[in-house]
Design a protein that fits this description.
single chain; about 325 residues; alpha/beta; Rossmann fold; GMP Synthetase, Chain A, domain 3; about 20% strand; binds xanthosine-5'-monophosphate; GMP biosynthesis; ligase; GMP synthase activity; ATP binding; ATP-binding
C-alpha cells in the first residue's frame, strides 16, 4: 500500500526533524495507538526513545507479556514496570466508580513520573493523539494518554516536556494500516478498545487481588472464545464483568454459593450509542460451560442484553 508507506516515511522525517538529538519518553498502554507509535519512534530515533509500560495489575491475562513480545523484537526500548501492589493497595476498600478512576489516574501519573526521573532526563513526551482526539478531546481515552489524566502544562518543572504527536492528523484505520506495515501483530493491531482503568471498572465495587484474578480468567475465556469462533472482529467491544452477586448453585452433590459473571459484547460506530451484539446462543452456551467449569468461583453466567443508552458499555 504505497500511501501508508509514504505516510510512514513522512512521519519518520517529521519526528527526526522535531526531536533532533533529544530523548523521548512514551507511555505504552498496550492498545494500538501507543504500540504503533512505539514502533514508529523506534524506527525514527532508535535508542533515543524510552517506552514505559506500567503494569497496574488491572490488565488482562498475559497482556504485559504480549506487549513485550510484540515490541521488543522490533527494536522498541521498552521498560515494563510492575506497579501492581501500589495500585491495588491504593484501591483497597474503594467502591465508588469515579473514585476508582481518580485513584488510578493519580497512581498512574505518580508511577509514570517516577520512571521519567529514573530513566530521564527527557526532552519530549510522545503521545498517540489521533485526529478525532484533537477535534474533540472528550471520550474514551487510554491510560497512555497523559493529557486525559494530567494537564501537561502542570507537570513538575523538571518534567516539562514538549509533546511529540505524529498521529495528530490520522484516523484509527490509518494507524491500523501503519501498524500492519510496521509489523505489529494482529492481536494488538485489531484489538478492541480497553479502558485506562482496566479491569478495575469491570470488577464491581471494591476490588481485591482475588476478584481480579477471577475476572481475568473469565475475561480470557470469553475473549479467546470470540476469537476462536470468528466473532471477535464483528464486535466493537467485548468484556466480562465480575458482579458482587452471590447465588446458590449446585455442583455434583453439593450446593454452591458463588459469584455471577456477566458477559457483554456490543456493536457501535462511535461508542456513544451501542447495541448489544446478537451472539449465537450456541456460542454463549459454550462460553457459559467453559466459564463455570474452569473458574470454580463462578456458578452463574449472564449475558447483558441492554443497549446504550440507557446502559453504558462498561458497568461502572
Ligand atoms: P461507556 O461505559 O461510557 O464507555 O459506555 C464508552 C467507551 O469508553 C470506554 N471507557 C473508558 N476509557 N477510561 C478510558 O480510557 C475510562 O475511565 C473509561 N470509561 C469508559 C469504554 O471502554 C468504552 O469503549
Amino acid at each position: 500500500d504505497w500511501n501508508a508507506e509514504h505516510i510512514i516515511d513522512e512521519l519518520i522525517e517529521g519526528v527526526r526533524a522535531q526531536v533532533g538529538e533529544g530523548r523521548v519518553l512514551l507511555a505504552i498502554s498496550g492498545g494500538v495507538d501507543s504500540s504503533t507509535l512505539g514502533l514508529l519512534l523506534a524506527r525514527a530515533i532508535g535508542e533515543k526513545l524510552t517506552a514505559v509500560f506500567i503494569d497496574h495489575g488491572l490488565l488482562r491475562l498475559g497482556e504485559r507479556e504480549q506487549v513485550e513480545a510484540a515490541l521488543r523484537p522490533l527494536g522498541v526500548n521498552l521498560v515494563t514496570v510492575d506497579a501492581r501492589a501500589e495500585f491495588i493497595g491504593a484501591l483497597s476498600g474503594v467502591s465508588d466508580p469515579e473514585q476508582k478512576r481518580k485513584i488510578i489516574g493519580r497512581e498512574f501519573i505518580r508511577a509514570f513520573e517516577r520512571e521519567a526521573r529514573e530513566y530521564g532526563p527527557f526532552d519530549f513526551l510522545a503521545q498517540g493523539t489521533l485526529y478525532p482526539d484533537v477535534i474533540e478531546s472528550a471520550g474514551g481515552e487510554g491510560a497512555a494518554n497523559i493529557k486525559s489524566h494530567h494537564n501537561v502544562g502542570g507537570l513538575p518543572e523538571d518534567l516539562a516536556f514538549k509533546l511529540v504527536e505524529p498521529f495528530r492528523t490520522l484516523f484509527k484505520d490509518e494507524v491500523r494500516e501503519i501498524a500492519r506495515l510496521l509489523g505489529l501483530p494482529d492481536h494488538i493491531r485489531m484489538r478492541h478498545p480497553f479502558p485506562g482503568p482496566g479491569l478495575a471498572i469491570r470488577c464491581l465495587g471494591a476490588i481485591s487481588e482475588e476478584k481480579l484474578d477471577i475476572l481475568k480468567r473469565v475475561d480470557d475465556i470469553f475473549v479467546s472464545g470470540l476469537r476462536e469462533f470468528g466473532l471477535y472482529d464483528g464486535c466493537s467491544q467485548a468484556l466480562a464483568i465480575l458482579t458482587p452477586i452471590q447465588s446458590v448453585g449446585v455442583m455434583g452433590d453439593e450446593r454452591t454459593y458463588s459469584y455471577t459473571a456477566a458477559l457483554r459484547a456490543v456493536t457501535t460506530d462511535d461508542f456513544m450509542t451501542a447495541e448489544w451484539a446478537r451472539l449465537p446462543y450456541d456460542f454463549l452456551a459454550t462460553m457459559s460451560n467453559r466459564i463455570v467449569n474452569q473458574v470454580h468461583e463462578i456458578n452463574r453466567v449472564v449475558y447483558d442484553i441492554t443497549g446504550k443508552p440507557p446502559a453504558t458499555i462498561e458497568w461502572e
